[in-house]
Amino acid sequence: MIDSPAWQNVKNALNKQDYCWLVTGAAGFIGSHLVEKLLKLGQRVVGVDNFSTGHVANLDEVKSTVGSSWKNFRLIEGDLSFIEVSTEAVRGVDFVLHQAALGSVPRSIADPLPTHQANVNGMLNMLIASENAKARRFVYASSSSVYGDEASLPKKEVLIGKPLSPYAASKQINEIYAHVFSSCYKLETIGLRYFNVFGPRQDPDGPYAAVIPKWLSAMISETPCTIYGSGGISRDFCYVDNVVQANILGALTQSPESINRVYNVAFGKETTLADLHSMLVGELSKHKGHTPIHSEPTYGHPRPGDIEHSLADISLAQKLLGYQPTHSLAQGMMEYVGWYTHHE
Fold it and tell me: Which domain does 46 fall in, by range?
């Protein structure tokens, strides 16, 4: 887990320079990790969250972790689908890290309107507010779901397909709006297409939980895990520390060539769901004597909107941002399972 020169240089620079950052979705999984890292680097942070999927407990954990630096954090509770909230949140901010969204492909298929309101209306309001406030840069969370029905592997940023769900459509619209604002209003934007992010504070509960926390919770409760479709379905799993790195690198890159682009953020290696299940069983057994009784998964029908395989080409982010993942799936899983078993 060696930092890239670019990531180390950015951290060293931030320890000497005080900026004000806005993190939307600050009480969420990824947002809370960004808040934590920025506070540890001596930055001032404004967070905004409507707590529809975020949790106060996430911010409580950040508070206990960062100690006296917590005084540099200010929380705004509000919904970004209202322009007034976005305007208040971005006032006086140097950099915007826009993470707030309503995730989950199945959720968006079951009820597309909330996904559009949160992901499209919220994004547009944040772009307008950021441009009006003359923020230095706007970094936003996109998704690997924008690749849709484009089957080629690995996924390259220049080639996307038709979206397969309302969630994927909302993320494609985000990228279109970011391009329009960068060309019409000169707002500097950087989009990050996340691939299957996992790590501490990721919610394991509910029908739309991500696969790793959901399976981990099931194993601990001795419940069989369900694989939808074939065990050969594969994903490019990315530990949350890698995502934090990409956001901050994107905000601070000085190369004109790197700005107003979209980048894949992943580890760059695919893992089948069958192999993922075996890895989780093995890692969990190392902690507190856990030995899951139900070590064999069950199988269900493929879910609408899901793709068969996902693998990112991360060479563009490596070349232009200096991005270099610090955690593989195995390294991230070791940290995450350790955290999870400590907090269960």
Answer: 5-343
> Given a cut of 60, is residue 292 above it in pLDDT?
no
Sign of CA pseudo-dihedral 11, 55, 202, 105: negative
Which residues are designated catalytic? 167
Q: Which H helix or E strand runs over 44? A: strand 44-49
Q: Is the pLDDT of residue 304 over 80?
A: no
The pLDDT tens digits for 307-330 are: 788 999 999 999 999 999 999 999
How far apart are the C-alpha atoms of 337 and 284, rounded to whole Å?
Answer: 6
Per-residue b/e over 50-72, b at no fewer than 16 CB within 10 Å?
beebbbeebbebbeeebeebeeb
Domain count for the chain, please give it.
1
What's the rounded Cα separation, in Å, for the pair 258 and 217?
40
Backbone φ, ψ for residue 42 (5° rounding) = 80, 20
Strands 73-77, 197-198: pairing kind: unpaired
The CATH number assigned to the domain holding 39 equals 3.40.50.720
- Cα 94 to the center of its chain, rounded Å: 21
Amino acid 32: pLDDT: 98
Query: What's the CA angle centered on 208, arms 313 and 308, to 5 degrees?
Result: 40
Q: Are strands 238-239 and 197-198 parallel, antiparallel or unpaired?
A: parallel
What pTM was estimated for this model as a whole? 0.95
- The per-residue pLDDT for range 159-196, each reduced to its tens digit, is 999 999 999 999 999 999 999 999 999 899 999 999 99
Q: Which two tokens stand for residue 338?
A: 């350790």
Mean pLDDT of the chain: 93
